Amino acid sequence: MSGRSRMTAEPGLRQEPQDRRSTARIRAGAALLGGLASIAFAATAFAASGMGTTPTYPLTMTVGTVNVPVTVSVTNFSDPEEGTLTVNSIKHTPSCRAVTTINNQVQPCAPANADPGVFSPHGPATGKAGTGCAGKTFNLSAADVTTGEFEFLPVGGPVVLAAGPSGPSNPLAECVIEFFVNVLKLPQDSNAGLAGLQTKQISLVTGTTFSGLSANAGGSGETTVAEEPTATPTSTLTATPTPTATPTATATPTATPTPTATATATPTPVLTSTPTPTVTVTPTRTNTPTVTPTATATPTPTNTPTVTPTGTNTPTPTITPTRTITPTATPTFPAVPVVTSPGSPAGVALTAGLAVAMVLALRRVLRGTRPR
Question: What CATH code is assigned to 51-228?
Answer without folding.
Answer: 2.60.40.740
